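Data availability (excerpt). The following record was deposited with the supplementary files.
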Amino acid sequence: MDKPTLEVYCLKQTGASHDYQVDWKADRYHVGGKMFAMIGGDSQGKPIITLKCDPARAEELREIYEEIIPGYYMNKTHWNSIYLDSTIPDELWELLIAHSYTLVFEKLPKKLQREINMTVFVDNKNR
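Predicted structure:
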């Protein structure tokens, strides 16, 4: 999968924002100030995306796809890293990004969730 496509998938999530962490040489994607995706490289500079994942699902995905590994520099139980040159199906990339986003969004305070949803509603109404 190419990085520009993954960036589009990340930024189309409701209320998503982006920054670049210079020290890590990584693009990070947040919702409500919490990261749900990071695109960078492993210790050899091989491009990866790191996504939050339900622990049981994370293990299952690692067993099915050798290109999905425990989260690089992240909690190995709750995060997976996927090599961008992976052979996983195209539609799975977007599903995994949406899953990561949902896990992070649902942990945000309810008030912040409502604010994010309201901002999107107002933005769409003003178009």
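Summary of structural features: Residues 3-125 form a domain with the Aspartate Aminotransferase, domain 1 fold (CATH 3.90.1150.30).
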